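Hi everyone, sorry if this is the wrong subforum. Our group has a chain we'd like a structural model of before ordering constructs, and none of us has done structure prediction before. Sequence below.
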Amino acid sequence: MATIKGNSLHILNASSIRQHENATPRQTTQSTLMYIKYDIADSEKFDQARYLDVASELHGLLQSLAHMESNYKSSIIISYLKDHSIQMNWLNGNNKLARAVISRSHATSHIEALFDGCRNNKSFQRDFEAYITAQVQTSRCI
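Answer:
Right subforum, don't worry. Here is the predicted structure as tokens:
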């Protein structure tokens, strides 16, 4: 299901709706569902070496998207994984990329959980987004 709010397309589907409220730090298994939660302190700084699962997921995602060129690749990836939202003007000429990102065919639960965990720490969030952007730029050069 998708809704338009302002200039953004908000994508909702069963696999993107997560329930972190009952999760304990890191991850728990309830039936066949796994919930991942990162508790990011207000003073914590992003350090990629501490989030190897995030780095692994990002690497896999970028490998599968490497053949797709877009000036908005970083923006689309970050916006969808952070808020399940993509700005409408980014879709022009980038439909294939947007469909690939929202397809849920890539493991992204750690990336999404880290975005959820750092919502109150804007400095951490900016550094995390800068890391993703740098990885996208590096993947274009390979």
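For your construct planning: The chain has one domain: 2-141. DSSP finds six helices and five strands in the chain.
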